[in-house]
Amino acid sequence: MQSWRRKSLWLALLASWLLVLLGLFPLLRLSVPTSPWAGAPQGWPRWLDAELLQSFAKPGELLEDGPRPPQALRGGSCNWGACFDTSKCRGGGLKVFVYPAAGPVSETRRRILASVEGSRYHTLSAAEACLLLLLSPDTSTGECDPVPPQWDGGRNHLVLSLHPAPCPRTFQLGQAMVAEASPTVDTFRPGFDVALPLLPEAHPLRGGAPGQLRQHSPRPGVALLALAEDGGRWHVAGTDFSACPWDGRCEQDRGPKQTHPGATLPNATFCLIPGRGPDVLHFLQALQVLTALQEMPLTRVLALRQQTQFLWDAYFSSVEKVIHTTLEVRGIHLMGALVFGSASSLPLSMPLSSDTSSALIIQDRIFGPSAHPSLLWNSPPGAILALPTFSPSPSDFPFYHLQQGSRPLGRFSALIWGGAPGQPPLKLIQAVAGSQHCAQILVLWSSEKPPPTRWPKTAVPLTVIDGHRKVSDRFFPYSAISTDAILSLDAHSSLSTSEVDFAFVVWQSFPERMVGFLTWSHFWDEARGGWGYTAKRTNEFSMVLTSAAFYHRYYHTLFTHALPKALRTLADEAPTCVDVLMNFLVASVTKLPPIKVPYGMWHQEARPPPLEPGGPGLRQEPQPAAQNCINQMAAGFGHMPLVSSRLRLDPVLFKDPVSVLRKKYRSLEKP
Amino acid sequence: MCASVKYNIRGPALIPRMKTKHRIYYITLFSIVLLGLIATGMFQFWPHSIESSSDWSVQKRSIRDVPVVRLPADSPVPERGDLSCRMHTCFDVYRCGFNPKNKIKVYIYSLKKYVDDAGVPVSSTISQEYNELLTAVADSDYYTEDIARACLFIPSIDLLNQNALRVKETAQALAQLSRWDRGTNHLLFNMLPGGPPDYNTALDVPRDRALLAGGGFSTWTYRQGYDVSIPVYSPLSAEVDLPEKGPGPRRYFLLSSQMALHPEYREELAALQARHGEAVLVLDKCTNLSEGIPAARKRCHKHQVFDYPQVLQEATFCVVPRGARLGQAVLSDVLWAGCIPVIIADSYILPFSEVLDWKRASVAVPEEKMSDVYSILQSIPQRQIEEMQRQKWGSVSNPLFLPLIPPQSQGFTAIVLTYDRVESLFRVITEVSKVPSLSKLLVVWNNQNKNPPDDSLWPKIRVPLKVVRTAENKLSNRFFPYDEIETEAVLAIDDDIIMLTSDELQFGYEVWREFPDRLVGYPGRLHLWDHEMSKWKYESEWTNEVSMVLTGAAFYHKYFNYLYTYKMPGDIKNWVDAHMNCEDIAMNFLVANVTGKAVIKVTPRKKFKCPECTAIDGLSLDQTHMVERSECINKFASVFGTMPLKVVEHRADPVLYKDDFPEKLKSFPNIGSL
C-alpha cells in the first residue's frame, strides 16, 4: 500500500518535473542568446538593450531647429505664390484677358476665344486682368506670335495650347503657366502648370456628347479588357482568358481576336492604352494587370465606371469645359478665398447692383485658404457647376448632403414675384404663411407703380424687395433669402397650405431637384425639325413651372453668376423662356427630371386669367416665339439637358380607401 | 484605405503609452508610405490582401554585438538624388511580381556598425525610433527574409536625423549594400533633413535612385509620384495622455506654440495678439523654469506658464509656421490635440498629401499673408470649422452615385422564390409574363425534397424562363447574384403575389429607372421608436409614412444581390436563414445604409393576401409575426450600429393617377384596383 503510494508520488513528481522542463525549454531557448551571426538571420532582432537606444533627435532639437528668414524666391522652378502676382487679382477676382490673335484665326481658336469671352471670367482690359491668356497657334498656317505686349517675363500669364504647337516658340515661357496636352515630367511644374487632355480637332465647343454609359454595371459577357494597338485599333480580350494577350509568345492561346477601326471604341469594361516604349508590354505583364482587373471587387469596378462618365460630362466633353476647368483649376486659389461666408456677403448688401460681378469680389482677402475641397471636384456635378464663391461649406450646396451626412435647413422662404396692379395676393400669402415650414415671405415688387403700403398680417415676417422689372430678377440671389429652400411663386399662383407642406417635405428628400405643381413637357418636333414643348396634360413631363415650385437657393446663384449673359437676356425678352431656362439649368446640373407633386384641379377654375399676356401662364399653350426659345436654349447649352419623368409623388395614403381622418394631407384629396 | 488614413491623421492621439503606441505609429506610418507608393500608380493593381506571416522565432541580441564594417575612405559614393526619377524610370517593377499572392515584399538589411578608416563611427548605430520602425515592418505581412524575393529594400542605416550622421560616409555605407544597384527599389526614411546654414528640404546624403520617405519636402525637392512625404514624429505623444475633446468653441481662437520662430514672424504674431487681445495667444520658451521640469512640456506667455501640449486643446486654430525646416513636429502635436493647423510654410509638401485631402483638416496661409491670418480665419464659417475639427471623411458613398436613367430596352429579370406552391407560382409567372419590359424569369426552387415540375407543365411565356435549384432551403437564396441575371433591374416577387396588374408592375419598373439606386416596391412598412419599451417597433398599419418596402414585390439593382450575399455586415445573413424571416428587412437596411436614401413605395395600398394562405393568417399568428419583425429591426440596428432606414411621406404614382382625365389616354390606367 505504502510503496504504491510512494511510487505514485514519485511518478507524479517526475511527471511534473517533465512538464516544467518541457514548458521552460522554449522560454530558455528564447532568453539565451543564440550565437549571434550563425545561420540565416531570423527577422529583425529584438534588441536586449533596446531601452538604451537614443531618440533620433536630441531633446529640444525638434523644438528649436534654428529660426530662418523667410525663403527668398528661387529661380528656375515656379509655384503658385512665387511666380504669380496675386495682388493683381485684388478687387477683380479671376479676371481673364485674352490676347487677340494676330492675322488669320483658325476656327478652333476663334471658338476658344468666344468661349472665354462669353464666360464669367472675361475682361477687355489687360491692365485690370488678373490672368492674361495667350493662345498658342494651332494650325500650321498660323504664324507664331511675337512676344505679347504685356508679357513681363510671363508673369500672370497662362499659355494655352490645346494642340501641339506647329512652330517653336520665339520666346522663353519663363514665369508663365503652361496648359498643354501631354506635358513631359521634366518641364511640368506641379501645382503651377496644367495638364490638358489631348482633344481631337473636331471636339465640340459647347455641350458635347453625353457619356455613352447607359447602365451602372458592365453588361454580362462583355470583354474585360481592350488593348489599344497601333493605328487606332483595339485588341479585345475576352473574360475567360488567362494568357497574356500582349505577349507574342502566347499568340495561339489568345481568345477570339477582334479589331475595331479607330472610330468605334471597343465594347469592354477596361481599356488599356500602353505607352510607347520597347519594354512596355513586358512591364504590363510584370504588373499582372489582367489578374488584378479580374480580381477587382465589383464595387470598385462600378465606382470606376461611373467616375469615367462623371469626369467626361463634367470636364472633358467640350472645348468650353476644358477651358473653364483650366481657369477654375488656376482660379481656385483665388476664388476659394475671395468670398468666405459669401452666402451673406454676396452682392446682396446692395440691392441689385448693375455690376454684380465686381461686387461679388469685394473682399480683398485674396489668396487665402482654398475652400474648394476635392469633393467638389470629384463628385457630381463637378467644380464648374459648384461655384466656390457660393459657400466654402459643401453642406450648403444642394448636392452633397448624402456624402456629408447632412440635411438641408429645415424651413423655406416664399418668394412671390409680383407687380401687377390690384390687391396684394392675400389668399396666396395666407396659404403659404400657414405652412409650418414657412420661415418668411419675400415679395419681389417689379412694377412701375409703388407697392401697396398695407400687407396682410402674417405669422411670419413679410419683406418687400424692390426689383428691377426684369424677369430674370426673380432668380437673383437676394441676401434676404435666409433658407436653403425657396418656394418660388407668382402673385396669381394659387396653392393650399397642405400642398405647400407636402411639397416642401418632398423637396427635403430631393434638395438638388425642383419640386413643382404644374408641368410642361418637351418633345422633338419632326415636322419643324426642332424642339417644342407643351403645357398639355400628358403622361410625362420634363419641366415644372417656377410660378409654384420649390428649389434650392443655390440655383439663384448659379442662374445669376454662371449662365451666359446671352441666355439671361433671351429670358428677359421672352418671359415664358425664364421657366425653360431655369429648368434647363437645374437639369444640366442634376441630369435628372424635376419632381411633380399633386395639385388640386379646383385651383385652375378659381384662378383669374394671367394678366400679362405671354407671362408665365399656367395652362397656356406656349406661343410660337416661346417655342423658339427652347431651341435657342438648347443651342446655348450645346445639348438638350431636359429629362422626362413619368411619375408623380403623392402622399402615402393619397386617395386610398381609408378614413380621411387617418390622412395627414387630407385636403389634397379635394376633387 | 480611408480608415487607415483617417487613423493616421488622428494618429498621434491613438499612440498613447510607450511600446505599443510606438508600434502602432510605425506600422501605420509604414502602411501609409506603402499606400503612398500605391497611390503613385505603381502598385495600384496590387491586390492588397493580407498574407498570413510565417511564424519566426525572434532573436534576442545586444546592439553591442553588431558587426563592425570599416569603410575605406575611397569607397564609392552614390550619385546625388536623381530629381527626374519617377516610378516608371527609376523603379524596377520586375522584382515585385511573381511571388505568391502578388504581395509587395520588403527586405531589411541586417544591422551593422559603420566606421571610417580611423575607426570613428559614421553615425549612431540606430535610434530608438528607427528600431521601432524596422520592427514594425518586420512584424508586418510585407516582410520577407529572402532577399531574392524582395521588391523593396530598407537599409538599417539610420537616416532619420541628418544632424546625427556624416553625410559622405553614410552615402558610402549605402553604396556598399549588397543589392544597392544605384539605389533601385531602396526605401530610405528621413525626418529631419538638411543642416545649418542652408537646411535643404530633403536629405543631403547622396542616394541616387533610392525612394525617400521624408519629412519636410518642398515642391523643389519632392519627386511627385516617387517620394513620399511623412510627418515628423513627435516624442511627446508617447509621453502624454490627452483627453478627447469634441468640436465646439474653445478658449483661444488662434494659438502659436512654436519656440523657434523667426523674429519677423514672432513680431507679426505679437501684433495680432495686441490687436485681438484674448483671442490670440502667442507662446514662447519659458525662461525661468525650475530645475527638473522638461522645457518641452512647458510654454510661457510673459510670466504665465502653460502645460504643453495640453494648451493646444484650448485653441480652435494653431499656427504651424516653417522653422529652419519645413516639416515641424508641432504639426503632429496640433493634430493630436484636435486643434486645426494653420500651415504657414510655402511650398511645403504636407505629409501623405498624395492620399490625404488636407483642405478638409487644415488651413494653408501663404507666408506673405501672415499678418492677415486672423481675418482670414475669422471669415471661415463656424460650420466649416466644426467640419475641420471633426475631420469627417464622408458618411455615405452611394455605390450607384452617377445620376442616370437606364434605358427601358434593358428590361428587368423577375426572380420568383418558391418552395412548393406550384399552382400559385404558375399564376404569378403567367401574370408577370404579361409585363412588357420583362426580359427573363428566374424561378429559385428552394425545395430540396421535391423536384420542380416537368418542363412541359410550366406556363408557356414569351421570355426565357429558368429554374435554379438551391442546395439548401434558405431565404438568402432569393438574393443570390445568379449569373442568369443579365439585366440591372431585378424584380423580386413571392410566389403568391398574384394581385399586381401588368400596369402596376410596368409602372414599378419605370419608377425604378428613375431611382435605380433604391428599393422600389409595393407594400410599404414603417419602423417606429417605442418610447415605453425603448426599442424599435415594426408597423404595418395604414400610416402616412414608409421606411421599408417588402421584397415580396420590389424592384432593385442587381448589385444589391452581390452586396447582400458578400457584404452583409455581421451575422445578419445567418440570423435571417436561422429564423426564416426578415430577409426583406435586412435588404432594406443594407440598401439604406449604403446609399443613405429612402425607399420608393409605388402605387396605392392593396390587400396583399394570398387566397390560399388565409388559414395561417389568424390573429395570434399575426401578433407573433409582428413581434418577430420588430425583433429583427432591433437586431439589425444593433449590428449596423445605427438606424439607416429613412422615413418619407411620399409614394410614386403615374403622373395622371386619379386625375380627371380620360382613362384610355393614361399610360397606366389599371392601377390601384383592389
TrEMBL record, chain A:
Major location (coarse): endoplasmic reticulum
Q: Where in the cell is it found?
A: Endoplasmic reticulum membrane
The protein's superkingdom reads Eukaryota
Q: What is its EC number?
A: 2.4.1.224
| Topology of the protein relative to the lipid bilayer | Single-pass type II membrane protein
Q: Which Pfam families match?
A: Exostosin_GT47 (PF03016), Glyco_transf_64 (PF09258)
Q: Name one GO cellular component term.
A: endoplasmic reticulum membrane
Could you provide one GO biological process annotation from this protein's UniProt record? heparan sulfate proteoglycan biosynthetic process
Q: Which InterPro entries match?
A: Exostosin, Exostosin_GT47, GT64_dom, Nucleotide-diphossugar_trans
Q: Name one GO molecular function term.
A: glucuronosyl-N-acetylglucosaminyl-proteoglycan 4-alpha-N-acetylglucosaminyltransferase activity
The reaction(s) catalysed by this protein are:
3-O-{[(1->4)-beta-D-GlcA-(1->4)-alpha-D-GlcNAc](n)-(1->4)-beta-D-GlcA-(1->3)-beta-D-Gal-(1->3)-beta-D-Gal-(1->4)-beta-D-Xyl}-L-seryl-[protein] + UDP-N-acetyl-alpha-D-glucosamine = 3-O-{alpha-D-GlcNAc-[(1->4)-beta-D-GlcA-(1->4)-alpha-D-GlcNAc](n)-(1->4)-beta-D-GlcA-(1->3)-beta-D-Gal-(1->3)-beta-D-Gal-(1->4)-beta-D-Xyl}-L-seryl-[protein] + UDP + H(+)
Q: Which residues form the Exostosin GT47 domain?
A: 144-275
* Entries under Gene3D superfamilies matching the protein: Spore Coat Polysaccharide Biosynthesis Protein SpsA, Chain A
Annotated metabolic or biological route of this protein: Protein modification; protein glycosylation
Which keywords does this Swiss-Prot/TrEMBL entry list?
Disulfide bond, Endoplasmic reticulum, Glycoprotein, Glycosyltransferase, Membrane, Signal-anchor, Transferase, Transmembrane, Transmembrane helix
Please report the stretch or stretches of sequence annotated as the Glycosyl transferase domain: 412-654
What top-tier enzyme class does this entry carry?
transferase
**Family statement:** Belongs to the glycosyltransferase 47 family.
Q: Which PANTHER family match?
A: ACETYLGLUCOSAMINYLTRANSFERASE (PTHR48261), EXOSTOSIN GLYCOSYLTRANSFERASE 1 (PTHR48261:SF3)
Q: What does this protein do?
A: Glycosyltransferase required for the biosynthesis of heparan-sulfate (HS). Transfers N-acetyl-alpha-D-glucosamine to the nascent HS chain (GlcNAcT-II activity). Appears to lack GlcNAcT I and GlcAT-II activities.
The molecule here is called Exostosin-like 1
Automatic annotation (TrEMBL), chain B:
**Might you give the EC number(s) for this enzyme?**
2.4.1.224
The cellular component terms of Gene Ontology attached to this UniProt record, alphabetical and capped at eight, are: endoplasmic reticulum membrane; Golgi apparatus
> Single Gene Ontology BP term?
heparan sulfate proteoglycan biosynthetic process
Name of the gene this protein is made from: EXT2
Q: Output the Gene Ontology terms for molecular function.
A: glucuronosyl-N-acetylglucosaminyl-proteoglycan 4-alpha-N-acetylglucosaminyltransferase activity; glucuronosyltransferase activity; metal ion binding
User: What pathway, per the record?
Assistant: Protein modification; protein glycosylation
Could you tell me what this protein is called?
Answer: Exostosin-2
Q: Name one Pfam family in it.
A: Glyco_transf_64
Q: How does it sit in the membrane?
A: Single-pass type II membrane protein
This enzyme catalyses: 3-O-{[(1->4)-beta-D-GlcA-(1->4)-alpha-D-GlcNAc](n)-(1->4)-beta-D-GlcA-(1->3)-beta-D-Gal-(1->3)-beta-D-Gal-(1->4)-beta-D-Xyl}-L-seryl-[protein] + UDP-N-acetyl-alpha-D-glucosamine = 3-O-{alpha-D-GlcNAc-[(1->4)-beta-D-GlcA-(1->4)-alpha-D-GlcNAc](n)-(1->4)-beta-D-GlcA-(1->3)-beta-D-Gal-(1->3)-beta-D-Gal-(1->4)-beta-D-Xyl}-L-seryl-[protein] + UDP + H(+)
Q: State its location(s).
A: Endoplasmic reticulum membrane; Golgi apparatus, cis-Golgi network membrane
Keywords assigned by UniProt?
Answer: Disulfide bond, Endoplasmic reticulum, Glycoprotein, Glycosyltransferase, Golgi apparatus, Manganese, Membrane, Metal-binding, Signal-anchor, Transferase, Transmembrane, Transmembrane helix
- The keyword Membrane is annotated on this UniProt entry: yes
Q: How does it assemble?
A: Part of the heparan sulfate polymerase, a dimeric complex composed of EXT1 and EXT2. Could also form homooligomeric complexes. Interacts with NDST1. Interacts with GALNT5.
Per its UniProt record, the required cofactor names are:
Mn(2+)
Instruction: Name the job this protein performs.
Output: Glycosyltransferase forming with EXT1 the heterodimeric heparan sulfate polymerase which catalyzes the elongation of the heparan sulfate glycan backbone. Glycan backbone extension consists in the alternating transfer of (1->4)-beta-D-GlcA and (1->4)-alpha-D-GlcNAc residues from their respective UDP-sugar donors.
Q: Which Gene3D superfamilies match?
A: Spore Coat Polysaccharide Biosynthesis Protein SpsA, Chain A (3.90.550.10)
The UniProt family comment states:
Belongs to the glycosyltransferase 47 family.
- Residue ranges of domain Glycosyl transferase in the record: 412-657
- The segment(s) forming the Exostosin GT47 domain are 101-380
Residues that span the membrane, as ranges: 24-46
